[in-house]
Amino acid sequence: MLKKFSKLFVCPDCKENLKEIVFSKKIIIGFYCEKCGIIFPVKDGIPIILAKEARNFNLEYPLIKIIKRKLSNNSFREIRRFAKRTLALLTSKKTLTWEWEDEQFWSRKYVKQMIARTQKNWNDRIWQREILVKELTDRFSLEGKTILSVGCGEGQNFRFLLKKYCDENSLHIATDISFEALKLNRSFNTHKNSLYVLCSADYELPFPDNTIDVLCYFGILHHTKNKSDNIQKDKRLLRKSGYLILAEAVDRPTLSLTSWLMPKEETSAHEERVRKQSLFAQLTRKRGFEVVFVREEGTPFFTGMMKTLRNAMLCNKQLFLFVLNLDVLIAKTFGRIIPFFRAGEIILLARRIN
């Protein structure tokens, strides 16, 4: 299965095409960059293609050791040399970086979910974003297109929102920093033409320029260190006239009712909101994008309703949409003059124009 996707991968450090490391003439156990002289392992059919700054000793070192041992034949002498260099690189990466601090929190959740074999009720997020996907599909057919989900998590956005508009030739690429997320995603996703890759959203993604038709950021940018700056970094991946689809938590004034409105639950290491001004600064025509749809929502009114009527709103779509549409109206009117009622979330669709 991985074989047919091999030509999609480039080195996140130098952008050179990666080459396969094949064991027993059929099993791809890793990839290597001839220019950088380093190896990227494959675990359970999932390539781990991380930039040098984001590489992970605990995850990758044992895998590279296995690759080195399997390639003991003299015909693999050059790759064994690359393995030795990669092991030295990983030895210097024992301190966890920003993205791995978040990964520990989310992976624990994904493991519990995998064991329980349960799917979370995502109705609120799906119903919020249906209008966004409709705006996309009214303009652009997903049949035969390549869709990249950055920070995909368990994959609910593709499964419930995008998949029904795809055909068997549509390629879905799911990336995440969490191996457990990708495994859980794969176990739920029935779209056969799907590729799962472990990589970091904060560094160069390991794919060639101009290969993606739809680039998806569903609630991922606020978990990253570089926030909105990732948009310009990833723009190279989008084909001209390709679309960027985004749903994000944005900054708003500190609320005195925050402790009551917000659900009492453990949060990951990095939950900082994206600055709205910075977000739109990345999406101007001068920077290569045209915003074709935007909606602001998620005022304290909506948060309070979700807290007090959560079960009813998650089970009743009409009730949910009534509250949501009222919330959008509040953000448009009161939010402009009263900071307390400013929206805390944005959904938008942008098209690459150059």
Your description of this structure?
This protein has 13 helices and eleven strands. It is an alpha/beta fold. The chain folds into two domains: 90 residues, no CATH class; 230 residues, Vaccinia Virus protein VP39 (Rossmann fold, 3-Layer(aba) Sandwich). α3 packs parallel to α6 and α4 packs across α12. The relative contact order is 0.12. The mean pLDDT is 93.
Provide the descriptors you would attach to this structure in a database record.
354 residues, Rossmann fold, 13 helices, elongated
Proportion of beta-strand residues: 15-25%
Structural class by secondary-structure content: alpha/beta
In this structure, how is the largest beta sheet organized? 7 strands, mixed
Report the CATH C-level class of the largest domain. Answer: Alpha Beta
Strand order of the largest sheet: 7-6-5-8-9-11-10
CATH architectural name of the largest domain: 3-Layer(aba) Sandwich
Summarize the SSE layout with pairings:
Blueprint: E1 19-23, E2 27-33, E3 38-43, E4 46-47, H1 57-70, H2 77-91, H3 98-116, H4 123-139, E5 146-150, H5 156-162, E6 171-176, H6 179-188, E7 194-198, E8 212-218, H7 229-234, E9 238-249, H8 258-261, H9 276-281, E10 289-297, H10 300-308, H11 310-315, H12 317-332, H13 334-337, E11 345-352
Parallel strand pairs: 5-6, 5-8, 6-7, 8-9
Antiparallel strand pairs: 1-2, 2-3, 3-4, 9-11, 10-11
Helix pairs in contact: 1-2, 3-6, 4-5, 4-12
